[in-house]
């Protein structure tokens, strides 16, 4: 009988990435830089939310943005118009960022003097949830048109985030969307999750979102 070694590739990849992520988080703590990993499906209003967030916080802290996409630099151009320091990350076809990619992005951005960095991850609800980027906190956006069943379909994403932004709340009357059902389903997966309904278009809920960030950045710097 032949004997051979079985290597669990996926498990090994995750273990290596988790070590890299922990190291990056320690570096960010030393530098007093707070990194937010922002995830969502395409079309959820992620970039518009980033722009609203910059507008709400730019007088309180120095902000940097990393825009991750498989291709294009459209989002980075939109962020650059605000005067915010931004870098575009192309993943070369990969549907997520891992800790090493994030570290490369931070080196390219340059975090000297930056209080708060937003990593706008690649748009999907599967791969980004599996890889720890080394971020200080994780957030996701679920938009009203996507439906209220997403916590049932993508439980891992809802389980690993600290904040759920329910975007396009101004359009809720036009869709069959049960807000309380989403809250219940998300809380069942993640009892500590903070849920903030927002409209990146109108600005509804952005003050609460910005206050959460201010508190988290302050706590991060005091650790």
From TrEMBL:
Coiled-coil region(s): none
Keyword Lipid biosynthesis attributed: no
Source organism, top-level taxon: Bacteria
InterPro entries, sorted: CobW/HypB/UreG_nucleotide-bd, Hyd_mat_HypB
Keywords noted in UniProt: GTP-binding, Hydrolase, Metal-binding, Nickel, Nucleotide-binding, Zinc
NCBIfam families given in the database record: hypB (TIGR00073)
Sequence similarity: Belongs to the SIMIBI class G3E GTPase family. HypB/HupM subfamily.
Protein name: Hydrogenase nickel incorporation protein HypB
Entry keyword annotation includes Membrane: no
Span of domain CobW/HypB/UreG nucleotide-binding: 38-196
Pfam families: cobW
Source organism (scientific name): Clostridium simiarum
């Amino acid at each position: 009988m032949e004997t051979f070694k079985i290597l669990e590739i996926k498990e090994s990849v995750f273990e290596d990435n988790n070590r890299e992520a922990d190291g990056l988080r320690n570096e960010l703590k030393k530098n007093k830089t707070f990194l937010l990993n922002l995830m969502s499906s395409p079309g959820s209003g992620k970039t518009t939310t980033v722009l609203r967030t910059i507008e709400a916080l730019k007088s309180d802290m120095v902000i940097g943005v990393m825009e991750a996409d498989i291709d294009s630099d459209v989002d980075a151009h939109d962020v650059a118009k605000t005067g915010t320091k931004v870098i575009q990350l192309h993943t070369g076809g990969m549907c997520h960022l891992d800790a090493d990619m994030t570290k490369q992005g931070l080196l390219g951005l340059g975090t000297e003097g930056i209080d708060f960095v937003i990593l706008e991850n690649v748009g999907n609800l599967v791969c980004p949830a599996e890889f720890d980027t080394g971020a200080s906190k994780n957030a996701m956006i679920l938009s009203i048109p996507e439906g209220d069943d997403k916590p049932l379909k993508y439980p891992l994403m809802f389980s690993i985030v600290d904040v759920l932004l329910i975007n396009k709340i101004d359009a809720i009357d036009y869709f069959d969307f049960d807000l309380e059902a989403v809250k219940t389903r998300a809380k069942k997966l993640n009892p500590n999750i903070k849920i903030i309904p927002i409209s990146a278009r109108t600005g509804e809920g952005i003050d609460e979102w910005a206050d959460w960030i201010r508190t988290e950045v302050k706590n991060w710097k005091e650790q």
